[in-house]
Design a protein that fits this description.
single chain; about 270 residues; alpha+beta; Arc Repressor Mutant, subunit A; 2 domains; 7-stranded mixed beta sheet; two-stranded antiparallel ribbon
């Protein structure tokens, strides 16, 4: 590829990525999806009538007017009449920065409130009634694992059939999860189940002092993994059955922790 074509390709990519960022900013300041399409169209291609915007975005002309009202009320676009036709155009884009900073300030206030009251809110939301949530497929199992990341400064106890979990959840996701749990200061005490010899090469070779691991080997080890955290136990199947579920119960969690400790004592370092 010539230097000119390479530069054009990079410029196109930078512009496209920039528009995607603009869409995310608009979402962050609570601009609905159809209105985002209208705004980006005006930003990319310049002023337009409602009819032209409808053709550009695929939004019906009636709905275009609804989106224009949303954008106009937020001060993001303006209109002018030329030769009897009303045209719409983007206002000063610095308005986006002002609105985004306002939203960030509001979120910080809400974040501070949660930080100060989170324990009271947890106490109010928790009941003695146990809860069970089911998850299906790879996406569901990944979502299940993300539940752990709501917590911080805690220890996660896992029975982890390494190859089955790697095959089901995927290398990239597990690497991402490992990085995120380190940020949340979640340490791990884990038993790896393996039907063959001890696993020497794995995607967690950079584990530090916050991970303590032992190994179980044998022919009849379960391909389903489980993890214990807070008052919850999460179970994840292998790819063959592709499901998972979380049980939220203090008594059940205590039972599973007792079983984990038994396995831990017989597992090898």
């Amino acid at each position: 590829m010539s230097l000119e074509l390479t530069q054009l390709s990079e410029a196109h990519c930078n512009f496209y990525c920039g528009m995607e960022n603009i869409k995310e900013i608009l979402a962050g300041i609570n601009v609905p999806y159809p209105a985002r399409k209208v705004y980006v169209s005006l930003l990319e291609k310049g002023k337009a009538s409602a009819r032209t915007l409808s053709l550009r975005t695929g939004i019906t002309r009636t709905s275009v007017y609804d989106q224009i009202k949303v954008l106009r009320d937020k001060g993001l676009i303006s209109e002018r009449i030329a030769e009897g036709t009303t045209f719409f155009e983007v206002n000063d884009v610095r308005k986006l920065s002002v609105m985004l900073n306002d939203q960030i300030e509001k979120l910080n206030v809400q974040k501070d409130f949660l930080a100060k009251n989170i324990h009271k809110l947890i106490d109010k939301s928790q009941t003695a009634q146990p809860k069970v949530r089911f998850f299906e497929g790879k996406d569901g199992a990944q979502q299940l694992l993300k539940d752990v990341l709501w917590y911080e400064d805690t220890t996660l106890y896992l029975y982890w059939p390494y190859f089955e979990m790697l095959n089901f959840l995927g290398k990239d996701f597990l690497a991402w999860f490992s990085n995120r749990r380190k940020v949340r200061n979640i340490s791990i005490k884990t038993i790896w189940g393996n039907r063959a010899e001890k696993i020497k090469n794995n995607i967690f070779i950079d584990d530090g002092s916050d991970v303590e691991r032992r190994y179980l080997t044998g022919k009849n080890l379960s391909p389903m993994g489980f993890m214990i955290y807070d008052n919850k136990v999460a179970f994840i199947s292998s790819l063959k059955e592709s499901f998972g579920f979380i049980v939220e119960s203090t008594e059940f969690t205590d039972l599973q922790k007792m079983q984990f400790d038994i396995l831990w004592n017989v597992a090898k370092k």
